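Lecture 7, part 2: worked example. A protein chain together with 4'-deoxy-4'-aminopyridoxal-5'-phosphate.
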Amino acid sequence: MAFDVEAVRAEFPILQRQVHGKPLIYLDSAASAQKPRAVIAAMTHAMEHSYANVHRGLHTLANETTDAYEAARKTVAAFINADPTEIVFTKGATEAVNLVAHGIGASLQAGDEVVISQMEHHANIVPWHFLREQKGVVLKWVPVTDDGRLDLEAYQRLLGPKTRMVALSHMSNVLGTINDAKALARMAHDAGALVLFDGCQAIVHKPVDVKDLDADFYVFSGHKLYGPTGIGILYGKADRLAALPPYQGGGEMIGSVSEDEITYADPPHRFEAGTPPILEAIGLGAAIDWITSLDRQAAAEHEHALYAHVRERLKGFNWLRVIGDAPGKGAILSFTMEGAHAHDVAQILDRYGVAVRAGTHCAEPLMRRFGVTSSARASFALYNTIEEADAFVDALTKTQAFFA
Ligand code: PMP
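Predicted complex, written out as structure tokens:
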């Protein structure tokens, strides 16, 4: 099955719109991807035909909605080769990391070590900083090489008898580097530590098999995976989830409640206090069904071809610095332009209809590592075209003329 980008684009109504009188060229999918009709339709259908609160009803709509919500859990589980009981719906990857850090933190003591890296998103930094502040846990940072890889020798040296947890990105949202999660997990386990992967970016571009990776925890968000906002996934190995205390208290997460005592439900419901993101779970299930209906390998090759094409064209531009050139990296291009602030670059590109992100990308330690305060970032998705890639480079050249 060849990859038909025009057929894919036809599934995304928003791609028809114009910005400042120009066709939209959306190169900000790493921040949040656009939504295909399948997702819009699934959520609309639920709201128009089959909606009620889940789990607590005895009436038809409550049962139908519960079935749809639990079916979405099964879809997510199958997508990453997990059991449905190992899938917790959260409101996003950020909440998923916080849930794990909070739970693991309950048994950590001063001097225990958590290994993270310089390429983490703040979502996989700040929750661990909380443990440093609250418990005296020591954060150990895996350095990043000049071309944007994790320094594996340094990682090995950081792992030791006090390492309790390793929390690393599977794919960097700034550098595009794809880390060898399986090797990282093996090294963490050899040191007796648990491992969490932030899969927000990786899950979009490559098949993920949590069993094969041997991840203890794996987190991602729905909205970068062509699904809705307000939904994220925490995968945890069954025994790891069972060992975690609850994160929030409320309805649906209890076994029983009396005036003197509470017992908790088993995972995953123990971690889903209150009314969950029902419509969003249904939307995410639809997004995954849609993605798995495509030839994912062909989609990944298409994205990579766009990136490689742009990278090649940029080679002659001595006014542009690309940050992150790791071998095998994904289709994310971070760059700075000589004499220009990244925010200005993004605003001028917008005049040409090109949407890129600019700022720290919630990765301040990484910005510092590369000696910049911000960068611009173009991220390529399966709905982008080679013509858009060319139009982006042309718009970059025109943008540069403002600062020359
Ligand atoms: N990790 C990475 C690598 C990300 O790119 C993002 C989103 N920018 C997050 C974590 C946080 O995801 P969310 O905001 O959806 O919780």
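The chain has a mean pLDDT of 97. The first strand starts at residue 18 and ends at 19. Keep this in mind for problem set question 3.
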